[in-house]
Amino acid sequence: MIQDKLLLKIELKALRTQMNPHFVFNSLAAIQYYIINNNYEASEKFLVKFSVLIRQFFELSKEDEITIETEISLLRNYLDLETLRFKEKLNYTINIDRNLDTKNSRIPTMLLQPITENAVNHGIFNKVGKGILCINFLYIDKLTFRVEIIDDGVGFLKTKKEKTGKVKSTSILEDRLYFLNLSKKWSIQYSTEELNPNSEDKGNKAIFIITNLNK
Amino acid sequence: MNRVKAILVDDEDFNLKSLQLKIEKLFPEIDIIGCYQSPEEAIKAIDINTPDILFLDIQMPRINGFELLSFIKEINFQVIFVTAYNEYAVDALQKQAVGYILKPIDNERLKSTVNRALSKIELNNENEMNTRLVQILSKETSQKNKLIVPTVKGVSFLNQDDILYLEGYEGYTKIHTAGSESLLSSYSLGKFESQLISQFIRCHKSYIVNLSCIKEFENEGFLILTNKMRIPTTRLDKKTLLSLVTQLNL
Predict the structure, then answer these.
(1) Which contacts qualify for B107-112: CB closer than 8 Å, 24 or more apart?
(2) B89 vs A: CB within 8 A
């Protein structure tokens, strides 16, 4: 039993620490651009933001779970960096339900980040023109909350068609959810739907319903 | 060295600018004829104005770098992939790319990859120039009845009227002219055949003679030239010779 639990923990840890190398190197390339152009201010700003994010990634990858507040700050830092890179192509908003206790409610680490990254780097990246990303945190009851990650990009079907296996993060997520649910600490339902099934850019709406069974 | 034309393709504006700045600084011989963020526009531009070098991002919206190449009708240029992450490196090299550069760009890596591309271009140009030179010259000179002969020293231009006969010799050709010494060329006899005017005839697998220099025809199968040289003839009988000489008004 103990061994099983240990194994479970290791599995989860391995699945958690996935930082997309494309994101890392593209960010560094963006910093290089500001350096080449002698734009010290912008390069410094970018570098510091990037360091903050990397630090957060490292620190949080040690944790099994974090507060919603911390998760939101991580997402904001990540999205701010992507906005520097994507400029006006990317706009994002994060809405938080007033009833949600973000300081005390917890969430498994790095659960939302890969989906958010997918929305930006596949959905909006492949879209012609500007894209909007919206993340909603909604209170359901004391133990349960709902997170929606919505983008008006090209949609999942279109990106999934690509043969290079870019939607790696989705299968990692599936594995992760499987182990999290198995641990009996969490009950997490995950689903996706098209945002605009009738338009060219179908968009994507990812929904998590997360119940903390620890409390 | 000639000017080298380059096209840059990367969906991210500042990657394009970084690369452009670096190329301009490090390679004054390269003219950047276009920078494209949209893969679709890049495909059109490449087909209209072929570059010598294409700097190509791999991960782009809608059409990735590999797909972009598959849309190009004829890839007669050097491809250098520029990528943030090297998971595609093997693919890139299999696509016959001259190399790939990682972002952020390292100047040394950029230099060595571009230099490799430049030397390939130079080699191709030289080969192409040789062929074209011979083509142009042969057009020019055939009108003036000159024969171009590549030799060890360079290229000689001979008056075809002065040539008595050409002799094939183990893949080389010896060209005998009236008066002066014979000339040796590394071109085979066959390569001269097309350049020669109609008064030359291949009478033997190793000999082409100038019909206007024939003094006698021997029934045993020999032609005697004005310099008394005896040339064997296996491909030419008396009747054919007679009709040729009549036709040519010699």
Answers:
(1) B107/B22, B107/B26, B110/B22, B110/B23, B110/B26, B111/B26
(2) no
